[in-house]
Each structure stands twice: as C-alpha cells, then as structure tokens.
C-alpha cells in the first residue's frame, strides 16, 4: 500500500545509505524503528551544500528535507523489509544548517513532514522538532532522524 503510493509519486526508495562513521543506518527495537541522522544524499552526492540563509535557498532546503525523509525510509526499510510494514510515523527531528539570522527551520522541516503525510496519510502525521545548528556533516544543509512504529 505505501510502497505502491511511493511508485505513484515516482519515488524509488534507494538502498540504505552507507554510514559515514561507526553506526548503523537504523535499528529496530520491539515495535519501533529508529534511524540515524540521514543527509540529503542522492546517488551518493549531496543535493546542495551550505547554510540556509546564505548558501542554500529555502526552496532547495525544502527539497533537501524531502530527500532526507526518503533516505530515512530507506534506512527503516533495511531493518523491517518493506515500507508497508510501517504502522505510523512517530517523531521526526530536523536539523537545519542555519546562518545566524535564519529563523525558518520549521518551513524547511515541512519538506519532510508534508511528504510523509502525502505518503502515509493520517499515519504520516508526527511529532517534530526543527532545530537550527551551526554545522552538519559534509556541510549538508539538512539532516533528519526519524522514529516509526512498525507492524509486528
């Protein structure tokens, strides 16, 4: 059902991105799956680099957030087998590489949140934090981690 919805949207869930250090992309514990922070990587390359408010436009930041969410789904799929095994999205934490004056982190985070609701409907609605940070790995504009409830 959700895998089919992704196909309808023209979205292919890639293989889980390889970790940049000593951790796993996702871990399942009982009925929850937790992702490590996922960057906006597509085919092994960042969509954009730099800070929101200086180097990266809000529109491009929103695209980055959506790609991070796709990569979170990829990481989750690697530990639960299928996106269809997701019962609901529980929590999304969005880190935005922000200039000192940038205050629209929630708008950037909507790139992920709106995508998740588009795919999962009511079950895609989630708790969320949108946090401005001074720097992210590889100078990525956005990093996202996610917690989902899975079907046993």
Kindly give the count of domains: 1
- The fraction of residues in strands falls at 25-35%
Strand order of the largest sheet: 1-2-7-5-6
Low-confidence stretches: none
Element order: H for helix, E for strand? HEEEEHEHEE
Approximate shape: globular
- In CATH, the architecture is 2-Layer Sandwich
Structural class per helix/strand content? alpha+beta
Nearest-angstrom radius of gyration? 14 Å
CATH class equals Alpha Beta
- Largest β sheet strand count, sense and barrel closure: 5 strands, mixed
Strands, count: 7
Overall pLDDT: 96
Helix content: 25-40%
CATH topology: 60s Ribosomal Protein L30, Chain: A
Distance between the termini: 16 Å
- Can you say what the CATH homologous superfamily is? RutC-like
Count up the helices: 3
Task: Write structural notes for this entry.
This protein is of the alpha+beta class. It has one domain (2-13, 27-150): RutC-like (60s Ribosomal Protein L30, Chain: A). The chain is built from three helices and seven strands. It has helices spanning 2-8, 58-80, 105-120, and strands at 26-29, 32-35, 41-42, 45-46, 86-97, 127-133, 142-150. The strands form two sheets. Strands 1-2-7-5-6 form a five-stranded mixed beta sheet, covered by helices on one side. A two-stranded antiparallel sheet has the order 3-4. A hairpin with a 2-residue loop joins strand 3 and strand 4. The radius of gyration is 14 Å and the shape is globular. It starts with a helix and ends with a strand. The model has no long low-confidence stretch (mean pLDDT 96).
